C-alpha cells in the first residue's frame, strides 16, 4: 500500500512516502509540492497532510488538491488536518466578551496573536516568538498552560532565541546551503518593484505564513469542488484509514493530540 504524506516537516512515519519542499533527512523526499506530484494517475492508496494546506492561497490549495485527486486511486482516502478557524474565533469572542475577568485580560494578548500573527507577520517567527519568550522569562504559568491547552505545545521548549554567533571561519554544508538560498531570495526580491518587495516577498514566505484559513464548512466545500466525496469531519483519534493511529501522525505517544485546535477531515475519491 502506497501512503503519501505531503509537507511532512519533521512529523512522519517510515511506513509512508514522505515529501516536503526541502529536506536533509533521507526519509523525506524533497519536491516542489506546487508542481505535479511524482506519481502516476491513480497510483496512491492514501494521502495525508497536516498543517500544510493553510500555507497556500486558496487557488494554490485547489491546485494541490487537484493533483492529490489525480494520483489517488478510486475509492481511496485523503486526510487533511488544518488549524480550525472557528475554534480560534470562538475563543477570541469568548475572551473578549468576558474581558472583565483578570485572567482573560492576560489571555487576550495570546488569542489575538494566535488568530492573526501567522497571517500578517513580516519577520521570521513573528510576534508569536517574541511573546512566548516574554512569557517564559516571566514564568507566566497561566499563559504557558493556556497555550498548551490551545495548541498542545509547551512553549518553554518552542520559543526561538537568536542563534549564537559562529567564528568567522566556521563553515559547513548547512551554512553554505543557507547562504545560497538567501542569495536566491534576494534575486527574487529584486524582480519586484521596490515598494512591493517587503510586502510580497519576505522571510516568512516559505512555510510560516498562513495564506488561508478553514473551518468545518469551507474545507469540505473545497474538497467537493475538486471532486472528492463522502467527506467527513473526524478527530485526531478517528480515521477510516486502516491502522492510522499506529503511525502517530495526529497523536503523541501518550494519545494526546499532536496539534490541538485543528480540523480533521477525510474524503474519498
Give the H and E element order. EEEEHEHHHHHHHEE
Distance between the termini: 16 Å
How is the CATH topology of the largest domain named?
A: Rossmann fold
Helical/strand content category: alpha/beta
General form: globular
Number of strands: 7
- Work out the helix count: 8
Question: Which oligomerization state do the chains in this entry correspond to?
Answer: single chain
Mean pLDDT: 86
Share in helix: 25-40%
GO molecular function: S-adenosylmethionine-dependent methyltransferase activity
Protein name: Similar to Uncharacterized protein conserved in bacteria
Domain Methyltransferase type: 34-76
InterPro entries: Methyltransf_11 (IPR013216), SAM-dependent_MTases_sf (IPR029063)
What does this structure look like?
It contains 8 helices and 7 strands; from the N terminus they run E-E-E-E-H-E-H-H-H-H-H-H-H-E-E. With 269 residues, it is an alpha/beta fold. A 7-stranded mixed sheet has the order 3-2-1-4-5-7-6. Helix 1 (58-71) crosses helix 8 (218-226). The longest helix has 19 residues, at 102-120. Mean pLDDT is 86; it is low at 162-204. This is Similar to Uncharacterized protein conserved in bacteria. Residues 34-76 form the Methyltransferase type domain. GO terms for molecular function: S-adenosylmethionine-dependent methyltransferase activity. Pfam families: Methyltransf_11.
Topology:
Layout: E1 3-6, E2 17-20, E3 28-30, E4 44-50, H1 58-71, E5 72-83, H2 85-97, H3 102-120, H4 126-137, H5 141-151, H6 173-190, H7 194-200, H8 218-226, E6 229-234, E7 262-268
Parallel strand pairs: 1-2, 1-4, 2-3, 4-5
Antiparallel strand pairs: 5-7, 6-7
Amino acid at each position: 500500500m502506497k501512503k503519501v504524506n505531503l509537507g511532512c516537516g519533521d512529523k512522519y512515519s517510515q511506513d509512508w512516502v514522505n515529501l516536503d519542499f526541502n529536506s536533509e533527512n533521507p526519509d523525506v523526499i524533497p519536491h516542489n509540492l506546487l508542481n505535479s506530484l511524482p506519481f502516476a494517475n491513480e497510483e496512491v492508496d492514501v494521502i495525508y497532510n497536516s498543517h500544510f494546506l493553510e500555507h497556500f492561497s486558496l487557488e494554490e490549495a485547489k491546485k494541490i488538491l487537484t493533483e492529490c485527486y489525480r494520483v489517488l486511486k478510486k475509492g481511496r482516502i485523503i486526510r487533511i488536518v488544518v488549524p480550525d478557524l472557528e475554534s480560534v474565533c470562538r475563543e477570541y469572542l469568548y475572551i473578549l466578551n468576558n474581558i472583565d475577568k483578570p485572567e482573560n485580560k492576560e489571555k487576550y494578548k495570546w488569542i489575538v496573536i494566535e488568530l492573526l500573527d501567522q497571517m500578517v507577520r513580516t519577520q521570521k517567527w513573528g510576534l508569536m516568538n517574541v511573546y512566548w519568550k516574554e512569557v517564559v522569562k516571566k514564568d507566566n504559568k497561566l499563559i504557558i498552560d493556556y497555550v498548551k491547552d490551545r495548541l498542545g505545545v509547551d512553549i518553554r521548549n518552542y520559543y526561538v532565541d537568536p542563534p549564537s554567533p559562529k567564528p568567522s571561519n566556521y563553515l559547513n554544508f548547512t551554512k553554505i546551503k543557507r547562504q545560497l538560498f538567501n542569495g536566491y531570495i534576494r534575486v527574487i526580491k529584486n524582480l519586484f518593484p521596490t515598494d512591493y518587495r517587503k510586502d510580497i516577498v519576505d522571510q516568512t514566505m516559505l512555510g510560516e505564513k498562513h495564506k488561508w484559513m478553514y473551518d468545518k464548512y469551507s474545507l469540505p466545500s473545497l474538497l467537493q469542488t475538486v471532486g472528492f466525496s463522502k467527506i467527513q469531519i473526524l478527530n485526531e483519534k478517528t480515521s477510516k484509514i486502516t491502522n492510522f493511529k499506529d503511525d502517530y501522525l495526529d497523536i503523541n505517544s501518550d494519545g494526546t493530540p499532536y496539534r490541538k485546535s485543528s480540523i480533521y477531515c477525510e474524503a474519498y475519491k
